[in-house]
Amino acid sequence: MSGTPAHDELRDSLAAEALGALHGPEREALLAHLAGCEECARELAEMRATAGELAFAVPVVALDAERSARVRARLVARAAADARPQEGAPVTPVTPLRQGPAPVSRAARSAGWWAAAAAVALLLGAGAYAASLSRRVDALRGRLAAAQTEREALRGELLRRDGTLAELAAPGVRVIDVASPEQRAPSGRMFWNPRNGTWTFFARGLPAVREGREYQLWLVTPTGPLSAGTFRPGPGGSAQVVARYDLPPGSLRAIAVTEEPAGGLPAPTGEVVVSGAFST
Amino acid sequence: MNPQTGPTPYPSQGASAGADDAEEESRRLLERMRRGDETALGALYDLWSPRLHPLILHVVGGAAEDAEEVLEETFWQAWRQADRYDGSRGRVGAWLATMARSRALDRARARSRVREDGWDEVPRLAGTAATDAPDPLHDAEAAEERGMVRGALLRLPVEQREALELAYYGGLSQTEIAERTGQPLGTVKTRMRLALQKLRDSLTLLREDPR
């Protein structure tokens, strides 16, 4: 199409298109032309690249660090909520304005027309603003959903911790300290509530386990050790395990932790990492 | 928009060597975002918000609160549309800047309509003493790039620069620029074309020989 009058004419619009300043039929015509004219398409790409340079030429104004951190936190929370889709957060229905006539005084009635005219003028002005408000409402609704998700997660965590604390403080809870044979870290402490069969175990200073291995917690009884679950320690070597197992009072001899293949075994095979005897 | 012509490519930036690292990192982050990793969005924000915020603030005319909201919405759009980013059509920074500018212009237009003050407050870059705050990234290379583009812009004849800025930072159409400057439409088109050509030539020269 190079050299045709249409080509020459449309070519003059390339810069405007690159700067986003072309609209309407002229833009439609240019876009249609571009589909078949490599020369213009290439020139437009170059011009767009040059126009794009302007994005990073503006003066740098530092974004307040605290505000920026808030924006970032909101984004990550929104994205987390978005990545784990849940049932749509309940949307508060818009309450309709109260219907029906209200008692109107004579003075108010005489001012009625002016009030109506003012209301219309206000509505016209408000119309444009409504569009921008609507966008902000969407944004705020997203933030609200993210905040609600975060709140639920925190609430769950809080309830879990409350439950653990209640277990530790329950009447009749027996405490068994465990230590390593080397008399150094790691160490741990088991809280056993025989009334409801809850075992809450805390350990610290545990060495990291190798790939494919886990620690296994054992309740040692006269008939042999019973598994109370497997776990991997956190980054600092600490761990918390909650298990439920009804053991008749008087049948616990000791608590022990061994290192076993991931998933655990029916009976311990690894060396004892920490252990502690239980005496009634 | 013409559906037949396909998506608009994002303008690619003049690539400097150091920008390539950021580009590579950005593409990795977008890949993680596509897989639903929200921490990647945080990292992308860390990487690009210091560069997009000045653009947004400039376009919305210095309104800090608006800029903050537009910044958030820009990255939110990036999160939602991460799978639409096509590396063959441009660099990540250019893709983000295109979204940021577009959203900032929407915001500026909405404000402008509300205030009914028309287009009297189109942000201007050149001609003012553009001073930079300390670069939040301490990125000397980005600062040099910025200085280079600004320098090239300042070398343009004033009427060409004006047309460029009204269109890019002000979001004005060619017709609106013609009305505003009192020039025939043809003149406006020519000014924009010459401005972009000269800008490109200056930048090519400056990048070849920065001194």
Secondary-structure element string of chain B: HHHHHHHH
Structural classification of chain B: mainly alpha
SS field, number of helical segments of chain B: 8
Mean pLDDT of chain A: 81
The coarse overall form of chain B would be globular
Task: Note the quaternary state here.
Answer: heterodimer
Quick overview of this protein structure:
The complex is a heterodimer of chains A (280) and B (211). By secondary structure, chain A is an alpha+beta fold. Chain A has 7 helices and 8 strands, in the order αααααααββββββββ.
Feature tags:
A: 280 residues; four-stranded antiparallel sheet; elongated; B: 211 residues; mainly alpha; 8 helices
Give a topology summary:
The complex is a heterodimer of chains A (280) and B (211).
Chain A: H1 5-11, H2 14-18, H3 24-34, H4 38-52, H5 65-83, H6 106-110, H7 112-169, E1 174-179, E2 187-193, E3 198-204, E4 213-221, E5 224-231, E6 239-244, E7 254-261, E8 272-277
Antiparallel strand pairs in A: 1-2, 2-3, 3-6, 4-5, 4-7, 7-8
Helix pairs in contact in A: 5-7
Chain B: H1 17-34, H2 38-59, H3 64-80, H4 92-115, H5 140-154, H6 158-168, H7 174-181, H8 185-208
Helix pairs in contact in B: 1-2, 2-3, 2-4, 3-4, 5-8, 6-8, 7-8
